Amino acid sequence: MMSCTVVVSEADFDPAALLSQLHEASPSVGAVASFTGVVRGDVTGTLQSLHIEHYPGMTEAEIERIARQAAERWPIEAVQVYHRVGRLALGERIVWVAVSAAHRGASFAACEFVMDYLKTRATFWKKECFMDTERWVEQRQCDLDKADAWRS
Amino acid sequence: MMSCTVVVSEADFDPAALLSQLHEASPSVGAVASFTGVVRGDVTGTLQSLHIEHYPGMTEAEIERIARQAAERWPIEAVQVYHRVGRLALGERIVWVAVSAAHRGASFAACEFVMDYLKTRATFWKKECFMDTERWVEQRQCDLDKADAWRS
Amino acid sequence: MIKVCFFASLRETLDTSSVSLSAAGLSCVADIVAHLVAEHPSWHDALSQPNLLVAVNQVHASPNQSVNDGDEVAIFPPVTGG
Amino acid sequence: MIKVCFFASLRETLDTSSVSLSAAGLSCVADIVAHLVAEHPSWHDALSQPNLLVAVNQVHASPNQSVNDGDEVAIFPPVTGG
């Protein structure tokens, strides 16, 4: 039975503690793949921060559905998803996805799968805040393509 | 210019500090994919520890060659590889590979590429230590197949 | 009653987080949208954006999904998390 | 001189970490292996394992790679790190 932890919060998370939880949870864990998303500066260097809104309740439920789909496709032990909301400065962590498994292939594939579907299905919205203006981020076609690619 | 850090040591490493180094290094880092390998219990439950031997000098040079190949294939910012040697108990970390990039696709692909080639080209050898016997681990065909798959 | 929630740019454009509607005569999400536009003509353009997504009871849904009294419906732009 | 290093199970079987050989008459890695077997007949089986790998100056190499005085040659079983 796969374990699944989903946390949406304004607070930061501690990757080291999260990794330890995964590999100390079970002697059959041999591999942990993880992904950290970070607020990246824009090309003009004028981005000040991001503001992230979400749909409380649905967000967590949708991420858990994505994690369950991953567990149906690959033999994995546990999935962790932490996603921050509210205001985030440049360089701050936004998202953490980690997947533990006996073997690395499953952990890598499931981790990337969860990230790709999170991008296209989890109910978060990012607003970019500049010195004197704000702008909602548009969904990127390449993110839709990545998620679609898992169907084949 | 990609930055590459390779450390082979008996000492443990701190994933949190390593992750922070990567995403604080550059404002253009938006994604960090990482992999942690852990000493996994065997099916009989009798494995006590691993002993890892390596070829000092060649190991580090070979891993750096692998990282450079990854940087030629994908737009990545930095690669970290930490690999432990000596005696490791069940549940201890063996290996850490982390790759930072602007975008997640490159970080995931390069991280898995480095792990797959590390498995088949980096000069480490694992010995499994049981209560009353020891046994050198045999290379697995599926690891060779994974590395070969990157050629196509 | 059916609760209808708006998020992100749509919430800002409508200047409304949610509304409650009587379920009478509303059989699917598209009916709700038509009803909202009839009540608020100024919402027409925002609610006609072709890329809007909908959820019913916190699950992704299509505009022709049926709705019932007590449901929570959400309408929002494409998601951009991660 | 050419230094020849052994690792892991091969090091244990030969009970030797490394040997130094005069480079005279040794033109490639395969020559070195033949020379070692001639000097140590008991090493024949261990050095005849078909899956052994070689490196010259800490770079993966094939058995027919040429060697020169001062080179460091290594012979080892398939690697199993990570």
Structural overview:
- The complex is a heterotetramer, with two copies of chain A (152 residues) and two copies of chain C (82 residues).
- Chain A is α+β, with helices and mostly antiparallel strands.
- Chain A has helices at 15-24, 58-73, 104-121, 141-149; strands at 3-9, 31-38, 47-54, 76-84, 86-89, 93-101, 124-130, 134-136.
- In chain A, α2 (58-73) packs antiparallel against α3.
- In chain C, strands 2-1-5-3-4 form a five-stranded mixed beta sheet.
- Chain C contains three helices and five strands.
- In chain C, 27% of the residues lie in helices and 26% in strands.
- Chain C is globular and about 35 Å long.
- In chain C, β3 and β4 (59-61) form a beta hairpin.
- Chains in contact: A-B, A-C, B-D.
- The B-D interface holds B 37, 52-55, 57-58, 61-62, 83, 94-95, 115, 118-127, 136-139 and D 5, 7-9, 51, 55, 58-60, 74, 76-82.
- β2 (31-38) of chain A pairs antiparallel with β2 of chain B, so a sheet runs across the interface.
